[in-house]
Amino acid sequence: LAVLSSSGPQALAAEGPSMRVVYNALGGSMAPLWVAHEMGLFPKHGLQHNLNYMAATTAVQALATGSEEIGLVGNQAVDLALEGADTIYVASTVPRFIFQLYGDPSIKSVNDLKGKVVAATQPAASTDYATRMVLRRFGLVPDKDVKILYAGSMPALVTMLKSGNAVAGLMSVPTIYQAQELGLKPILNVTDLNIPFIFVGVATTRKVIQQKPEAVTRFLRAYTEAIAVIRRDKETALTALGKFLKSDNRQTLDGIYDEYGGVFQRVPLITREEVKAVLDVAKSPRAQQVKPEEFYDNSFIQKLEVSGFINSLYAR
Question: What is d(CA 98, CA 192) in angstroms, rounded to the nearest whole number?
Answer without folding.
Answer: 9
